[in-house]
Each structure stands twice: as structure tokens, then as C-alpha cells.
Amino acid sequence: MVFLCECGSVKAALPDRTHVFSGRIAMADDYYLGRSNPSNLEQALRLLRQAVSDNPNDYEAWWRIARTEAHLGNDRDPKDEKGQVADFQAGVDAGHKAVALQPNRVEGHFWLGANYGLLAEDEGWFRGLRLLDTIRHEMEIVVRLDPDYEQAAGQRTLARLYYRAPFFKGGDKQRSIELLKDCLRRYPQDSFALLYLGDDYLALGRKAEARTVFEQVISLCPDPIYGPELADNQAEARDRLRQEFHSGK
User: Is the pTM of this model over 0.85?
Assistant: First the structure.
């Protein structure tokens, strides 16, 4: 995508079983674990929409709706632009509702920013520029509220903004590298941070370092928590190797 992350790599959150949720939310979380099948996401969304219909002030349901809409839009056929925009806009709306209900909780801010990023990607470069500051603002809040949320996803997204943004909007690939290396110091197996670091190295002409990082992504062990995301990122890394190094790996 233009500013947030690569297509198919929206970070997933596991349900927090330390809280007691309604039956619908618990069931939606279970469906979400099977998110590699879009029909499971649709079932999760149906349950979450029922939850907010019964209780419009249900923060736990609203931020999960934002998360689910992001995944549903990402899973659509890229030719269905209208459907993708509708999903991401619904995710933005749900994220705003979550943030309004609990402005000091991290989940609403992250998924609000994530949906804005996906919307920016889908609606083109100029809209992406207009949304850049909004995305950055939400991710800065995420870092302030919980710097380790989703394996430092807020900081990783800020790094991606530095990579994607043009220089006149604060783009700085060296700063992106610094932020990603800090993420990897804390979460060395994070396939997103590794993939993004490789892209930074490529952009700066540091091809040997980029190749090493992409190969590291491919060699990561299966992840029971982020399995679908890891598979997507490994496919992206293989594509980079084929395109840049003519490798069949």
C-alpha cells in the first residue's frame, strides 16, 4: 500500500483471554483465528455487528469491527475497488467509534490508522498524501499508549511511512531503517519489520544487505500466532528475490 504496509500484511491481533467478553465477541475471536478463510471473517463481522446493534457503546466490538473490515478489504479481488473502499471506509468509521469510546486504549487508534492507510492505498497517491498526517498521528498515539502493541506495530508503521512518503512530506529511508532496527531488537522474528528493512536497503542501493534480510524472512519458522501474515510476507520476500536477484528461491 502507499503508506501503511504491503498488500496482505495487515497485522493481526489475538483475542485477549484475560478479559471476559460477551458470547458474540468470544465467538467472533474464534472465527478470526481462522482468518485465512474470508468466510470466517464474514462470520466474525456478522457477530460483531450484532453486538454493537445491541450495545452501541461496546468498545471491544467496535475495534474488532475495524480490524475485521481491514482484513476483508485486503482479501478482496483487487479489481473490486468499490468493495475494498467500502470495507476500509467501514473500518475507518468503526475505528472512530472505538476511539471516541476509549481514547486511551491502543486498539482503536491502531486499526483506525490501519484502515486509513489501506484507504489511501486504494484511492490513489494524492489521497494518500492527504491522509499521511492522519495515519502518522494515529500511529504516534499507538506508540505512546503501548509501544509494544502487536510487536511494535505502531513504530513499524511509522518506519514504513518514512519509507513511503516523498521527501517533501518527511520521507527519510535512513530514519526508517533506524526505527525498524529498533523494532527488530525487541522482536527479531517479526517478518514485517524484516521485509520492510529489506525494502529500505533496496531503495538505498544496499542490495547485499537486502538479499540477506529477504532470505531471513523466508527462513523464519512457522508462526502459530501470525501464520497467515508470515506466509504472505514470505511470498513477498520470494518475489523481491526473483525480481531483484533473479533467484528461484
Answer: yes
